[in-house]
Structures are given as structure tokens and as C-alpha cells.
Design a protein that fits this description.
The complex is a heterodimer. By secondary structure, chain A is an all-alpha fold. Chain A has one domain (about 50-205): Four Helix Bundle (Hemerythrin (Met), subunit A) (Up-down Bundle), CATH 1.20.120.80. Chain A has helices at about 15-45, 50-55, 60-85, 90-120, 125-130, 135-170, 180-205. In chain A, helix 1 (about 15-45) runs antiparallel to helix 6 (about 135-170) and helix 6 (about 135-170) runs antiparallel to helix 7 (about 180-205). The longest helix of chain A has about 35 residues, at about 135-170. Chain A is elongated and about 60 Å long. Chain A starts with 14 loop residues before the first helix and ends with a helix. The relative contact order of chain A is 0.16. By secondary structure, chain B is mainly alpha-helical. Chain B has one domain (about 10-95). Chain B has three helices and no strands. In chain B, helix 1 packs antiparallel against helix 2 (about 40-60). Classes of the chains: A mainly alpha, B mainly alpha. Chains A and B meet through helix 1, helix 3 and helix 7 of A and helix 1, helix 2 and helix 3 of B.
């Protein structure tokens, strides 16, 4: 056997394996949210009018603004990874900070939205909500669970990116070793994709 | 041994993809708020969301340029599993008697 054909793993790092592992995790996350999307679809199919009425109460402008924020944060994290590949450490770090800031503004907007709704007496099991038609109770239940779980993912994403920022500062992530940053980026894009579906399904029911 | 990624994407590619994503967001908003295509609205919204996801997956998440075959089949495979769940759920919901 030709010895040159035996694969050598430099430093024991398997880049494809690391990325594939991240993808498997991302796909399991997609199925987690997928289950909730099926629940949403089944209830909306049963009570379309209630879903329409309840959706009209959500703040479309704030929802659209949050969509733009997340799309822009996806751009900044993608460029940040390319920057580290090209050896521009400073640009990479600045863009990671921009990404984290956009994620935090997203969460602040979400907080404002939830607080307003709760102020109007609309929260799971509230007397005001329970007095409403069945479909509206389900809509707001799904709204709180799905946007809540998504918000939790945004928060985790910000924390992960913060760790990456520290790793770049300590030179643990470099133009030669950036798989952890790339995987964090994949996670951040996943959060973006989930929001891409949440936005029309909750805010834009005509 | 190859390094992690031999071909960093261009900054301009990302900016173009981002512009596309913002335009599609404006489109889905306009379709929902200004035009009322009735029962087609949900299909249009999902088609636009699907297109946006495709852009994110292929360009931001580099699925387009991944070499190993596993990356090409992994998403369709999971979508197929998801579709089975959807069909099973809806065959139940659609044909179940009304329970009040």
C-alpha cells in the first residue's frame, strides 16, 4: 500500500468532523422547532379566524425591525469569519461585537413587546386571555413559547460569541484555527433561519 | 492535510446576499399588508421564507461550497423526516371528528 495515501491528521484536528457534528446539532434544533411549527399549523388550520384576529394585535413594525436586525447580524458574523480567515483580527473582533450588540437590541425589542402585551393582561393563563376565543388563547400560548425559546437561543448565541471574542483576543482563534468561530457562526445563522419563519407566521397573518 | 477552509468567501458576496434577504423581507411584508391574496397568502409567505432560508444556508452557512457529499444530502434528509411528521399529524387532524 502506498504510504502517502494514508490520511494524516495534523494536530489531531478533523475540521470536517467538527463541522459535521455542529450540523447534526443544528438539524436536531430544526426538528425541535419543527415540532412546534406543526403544532402551530394544526391549530391555525382549525381556527384560522382566531389566529388572524390575535395576530393583528402584534406589533408588525417591531417584528419587521427585529427581522432586519437579525439578518444584519448574520451578515456581520459571516464577514467576521472571513475576516479572521484573511488574517484581519481587528475587523473580525469589531464585527463580532456588532453581532452581539444587534442580538442584544433584538432581545430588548422582544422585551418591550412582551412587556406591552403583559401590561394589557395578555399572558399565559391570564383572566383576560382566558375570556377570549379558544384559537386566540392557543395563538398567544404558541407566541410566548416559540418566541421565548427563540429568544433563549439568541441569548445563548450572544454568550457563545462573547466566548469567541475572548478566544480571538487570546489568539486561540487564528487564520489557521477558526473552526470554533465558524461553528458559532453556524449556530447564529440557525437562530436567524428560525426567526425567518416565525416572523411571517406570527406577525403577518392576512 | 487541507486547512479548515481554503477559500474564504468575498465580502461583497455576503453584502449582496444580505441585500437580497432585506428585499425579500420587504416583499413578504408588502404582500401580507398591502395585497390580500386570500388563501394563497400563507403559501406565498412560506415560499419567501423558504427562499430566504436557502440563501442563508447556501451562502452564510457555506452549504454551497462544502465538498463532502454528506453536507449535500443532510438537509433534504431531515426535511423528508419532517414532512413525514407533518403528513402524519395532518392526516390525524384533518380526519378526526370534532371534539368539543
Amino acid at each position: 500500500m502506498d504510504e502517502a495515501k494514508v490520511p494524516v491528521f495534523e494536530g489531531g484536528i478533523d475540521y470536517t468532523g467538527a463541522k459535521l457534528g455542529m450540523w447534526l446539532f443544528i438539524l436536531s434544533e430544526l426538528l425541535l422547532f419543527g415540532g412546534m411549527f406543526i403544532l402551530y399549523a394544526a391549530h391555525r388550520y382549525k381556527t384560522p379566524a382566531d389566529f388572524h384576529n390575535a395576530s393583528a394585535e402584534l406589533d408588525v413594525i417591531l417584528g419587521t425591525l427585529n427581522t432586519i436586525l437579525l439578518l444584519t447580524s448574520s451578515l456581520s458574523v459571516a464577514v467576521s469569519i472571513t475576516a479572521i480567515q484573511k488574517g484581519d483580527r481587528r475587523l473580525s473582533m469589531v464585527l463580532l461585537m456588532v453581532t452581539m450588540a444587534l442580538g442584544l437590541v433584538f432581545l430588548v425589542n422582544k422585551g418591550i413587546e412582551w412587556t406591552t402585551k403583559i401590561g394589557h393582561g395578555i399572558y399565559p393563563n391570564s383572566p383576560t386571555l382566558l375570556a377570549r376565543p379558544k384559537g386566540e388563547i392557543l395563538f398567544f400560548g404558541l407566541y410566548y413559547v416559540m418566541t421565548g425559546l427563540h429568544g433563549l437561543h439568541v441569548l445563548v448565541g450572544v454568550c457563545v460569541l462573547c466566548v469567541m471574542l475572548i478566544l480571538i483576543a487570546k489568539d486561540k482563534i487564528s487564520p489557521m484555527h477558526f473552526t470554533s468561530l465558524e461553528n458559532s457562526g453556524l449556530y447564529w445563522h440557525l437562530v436567524d433561519i428560525i426567526w425567518i419563519f416565525l416572523y411571517p407566521l406570527f406577525y403577518l397573518i392576512t | 492535510m487541507e486547512s479548515g477552509e481554503e477559500h474564504p468567501s468575498k465580502y461583497s458576496t455576503y453584502v449582496f446576499v444580505w441585500m437580497g434577504l432585506v428585499c425579500l423581507t420587504a416583499l413578504t411584508y408588502t404582500v401580507a399588508v398591502r395585497i390580500h391574496p386570500g388563501g394563497w397568502a400563507i403559501l406565498v409567505a412560506l415560499a419567501i421564507a423558504g427562499t430566504k432560508s436557502g440563501l442563508v444556508l447556501n451562502y452564510f452557512m457555506h452549504l454551497k461550497s462544502e465538498k463532502p457529499l454528506i453536507f449535500k444530502v443532510i438537509i433534504p434528509l431531515v426535511m423528508a423526516v419532517f414532512l413525514v411528521f407533518v403528513l402524519l399529524t395532518f392526516s390525524d387532524v384533518a380526519f378526526r371528528g370534532v371534539v368539543e
